[in-house]
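S.,

Sequence below, as promised.
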Amino acid sequence: MRYLPHTPADRRAMMAAIGISSIDELFADVPAAMQDAQIELPGHQGEMAVEAHFSRLAADNLSAAQAPCFLGGGAYRHHIPAAVDHLIQRSEFLTAYTPYQPEISQGTLQALFEFQTQVALLTGMEVANASMYDGATSCAEALFMALRVAKRPRVVVSGALHPHYREVAETVFRFLDAEIVALPADVDGAEDAAAHIDAETACVVVQYPDVFGRIRDLTKLAEACHASGALLVVAMNEVVALGLLRSPGEMGADIVAAEGRSLGNALNFGGPTVGLFATRDRYVRQMPGRLVGETVDVEGRPGWVLTLATREQHIRREKATSNICTNSGLCGLAFAIHLALLGETGFQRLAEINHAITAGLADRLAGVAGVEVLNDSFFNELTLRLGRPAGDVVDELAEDGILAGVPGSRLWPGQQATEDLLIVAATELTTEADCAALATALGEALR
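The prediction came back faster than expected:
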C-alpha cells in the first residue's frame, strides 16, 4: 500500500516488540459485539450517481450566500476577491505547511514574512508568528505563554470573551498546574476585570470588540495588569475591525490572539481558518509556532529563513513552549494576498462600510417592537434582547429563509440571563433588503 509500506516481516517484528501475536489483539478492548457490528450502507454506485446523491444532501444546507445572513459570533461573511483563489493555487505557493527544508522554499517563506509584517502592523505589536490553527487555539496558546512569562499559575478570563475560546482554554488547562478564573457572562457591560487581578495572576484575557459586539478602551486595564506584574492578552474574532479601531498594541496589550478568517478565507461551513498571534519583541523567545526572518545570502541577495522554531516540539517534547507543529500557511497566504489587494486605504474603507451598514441595521432594529439593542458601541456586531427565547426565533426565521444570527443559548447553554439574547452581524455583503427582511421577520415573530 502506498501509505503503509511495512513488509510482513516489519509487522511481525513490531507485534513481537509489544507482545502480541496478531493484529486482532490490538482491538481486544473493543466489545466483541461491536467488532462484529454490520453497518447498513448502500452498495457501491457509479461516479455520477454518487455525485447526484451528495448534491441532494448538500441542498439541505442553507448557506450564508443563499439567504439574508446575520451570522457572526466569530465567523463573518465577507467578499473574497477571485484573485485570492487564483494566486494561492500557483505552484510556488500551494502548500498548507511551513516547509521543513525552508532554504529551498523561498516563495513560501517570503509570503509568510509578509503575512507576519501585516499582522504586526494591524495589531500594533512588534512581532508576529507565521500563524496558528485558528483564533481559539491561538488564544489558548497566548494564555500558556503568559504563564511562562509571568511565572504565575492563574489567568483571569473576561465574561465577554467568546465562550468557545474560553472552553478551548479550559480543555487544555486540565493538564496544567494552573487555574482559570472565568468571570460570568458580561451582558450589561459592567465587568471590572482589573478587580480580579492578584499576586498569582499571570494575565487577564479580554475580547476586542467583545462577544456582544461592544468596543472598550483597554488602556486602564493594561495599566492595572502591568502594575501587578500581569500581562494583558487581547483576543479578536473580527480582524476587519482593525481598519477603524485603535490597535490592541496602542492600548498596552502584551499578546494579541486573533481569528484571521475574515480576510482571504470563506466560511466554508466551518473552516479552515487561520489564527493570528502577535506579541512584544521582549517575549519573542516564549512565542509559540514559527517566525520567518529576512537575511542576505553570501552574494548579498535578499533571502528568507526560519529564524525561530520551537524545535523541542519535534525532539524533546517536554521542553517545548508549544505543541503546535505546523501553521495555516495556505490560509495565511490567502489572508496576505487579500490584505495586499485592499491596501491600507481599501482596508480602512472596508471597515467603514461594515460599520455604516451595521449602524443602519441598529437604527432599523431599534424601531421593532419587542427588540432592545443593548450596545452602546459596536463595529459590525450587535446584541439584541428579545421578548422570548432567541433560539426559537432563530429556528422560525431559518424556516423562512433568514439566517437571523447566533442565539445566546448557543453560546451560553442553560443560562437564563442569555436565553433571550440574539447576536447579529452585518458586513459589506449585507444589503438594505436583507436588513429590511430581518426587521420585518423579527417584528412578526415577536408579536
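The mean pLDDT is 92.

Coffee later?
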